[in-house]
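Researcher: Next entry in the queue.
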Amino acid sequence: MFATGNSLFTLYAMTLMPHNAELNAILKVSFISIVTPIILSQLIVSVVAYLWVTGAVHAIRRADRAEEIAQLEHALAVNAEITAQQKEQLETSIQKIIETNTRVANGDFDARVPLTKDNVLWQVSSSLNNFLSRLQRSRQELHQMRVELEQSREENSRLKGLLR
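Model: Structure for this entry, 164 residues:
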């Protein structure tokens, strides 16, 4: 487009603008040999500039895509790391719950799951700890009732012995 405009301006300047006598004489003899290199240089410069700009635009697009790909790869790596940490936390938490269940199964009713509120399985461990506390209280109450029952039996036996 610029080459066309420059070429038309050159033709206009050579043909329609006022000239001195010497330039008119030269243009009459060799107009085509003077104008042709000017127009050809305009065309060549325009083609080279077009190719250069097109190449630069493609390079910028490739760089943008490469940057987007790098950002996506980084995001995927971060997500993979977060997922791995969550998986490790879950495995550790599950292991603590299993250890607590094993301790309780072996008779240690003081065992509790040591998980905090920021843990994914905190609600499960909290519920289990609450259950274990209630179970421990029930066992203590049952033990107290047995002691009292045994005392009542002894008292009953003693009273029967007195009545005979």
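Model: Residues 84 and 90 are 10 Å apart (CA to CA).
Researcher: Noted, moving on.
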